[in-house]
Design a protein that fits this description.
This protein is mainly alpha-helical. It has 2 domains: about 5-125; about 135-229, no CATH class. It is built from 11 helices and no strands. Helix 9 (about 180-185) packs across helix 10 (about 190-210) and helix 10 crosses helix 11. It is elongated.
Length: about 230
């Protein structure tokens, strides 16, 4: 299960203590997928993208890069996306310096040679890398919320109810109506509507851990749904 990316968790990640390093490690694990998706759009292949992603997180872990994260400035994912962009810009600058060779004979640094970072210009016909990052972020957050909810329903012996109502969280209802779900669960339709509303509130609760003000939750929920389209 992904760990919750709370601002308190971000603040715990500052410093050199064992607890801080563990907190930052958890954050990196939670946000690996969206970071990899963004970098993959700038790399020639998956192996290069994985190497760059690992290097990004290694630097974040080793250099205390989380220190710049500030809850007063917005969302943690915005900070992380900015950090990834800065990292890729540094890698491109590094490649350019290598190509200049400091007066030495210039050697090819094409991706096929295995040297340099292997960065490439993004495909302008493909979806914007920022949107790909947000899409993976939304999937990560939804997976976290669903995993927590599944466990809660399992503990109360209601796993069947959760599975029946989950499509209204993921958008996979197809042609099924809430009335049909109510009949399946032997509930009235009003009770099903209330249950679905509570499930959505649980997702909003996960979102609340990634923003500074609760007033931002609805906006972030909107962004999440937009990113999943």
């Amino acid at each position: 299960m992904f760990v919750t990316t709370r601002w308190t968790r971000v603040l715990e990640a500052r410093g050199d203590s064992t607890e801080a390093k563990a907190a930052l490690g958890d954050l990196c694990a939670a946000y690996y997928a969206p970071v990899f998706a963004f970098i993959r759009r700038n790399a020639p292949d998956e192996d290069s993208a994985r190497d760059l992603t690992q290097e990004f997180f290694a630097r974040l872990l080793a250099r205390g890069g989380i220190a710049a994260a500030d809850p007063q400035r917005g969302r943690f994912r915005s900070f992380l996306l900015g950090a990834v962009k800065h990292f890729l810009a540094d890698m491109r600058d590094h490649d350019r310096r290598l190509k200049r060779g400091a007066g030495q004979p210039i050697e090819s640094l094409d991706a096929e040679t295995g040297t340099g970072s292997g960065l490439q210009a993004p495909d302008l016909k493909a979806a914007a890398p920022d949107r790909e990052f947000d899409h993976k972020w939304a999937l990560t957050l939804l997976a976290l919320a669903l995993a927590r909810l599944a466990q809660q329903y399992k503990e109360t012996g209601k796993s069947g109810q959760f599975e029946a109502l989950k499509p209204w969280l993921t958008g996979d209802t197809g042609n099924q109506s809430q009335a049909e779900a109510a009949r399946q669960l032997d509930m009235n339709e009003g009770a099903v509507k209330v249950a679905i509303h509570r499930l959505r509130d649980a997702i909003k609760n996960e979102i609340s851990h990634t923003v500074k003000d609760r007033a931002d939750i609805d906006l972030e929920m909107h962004d999440l749904l937009e990113a999943l389209l």
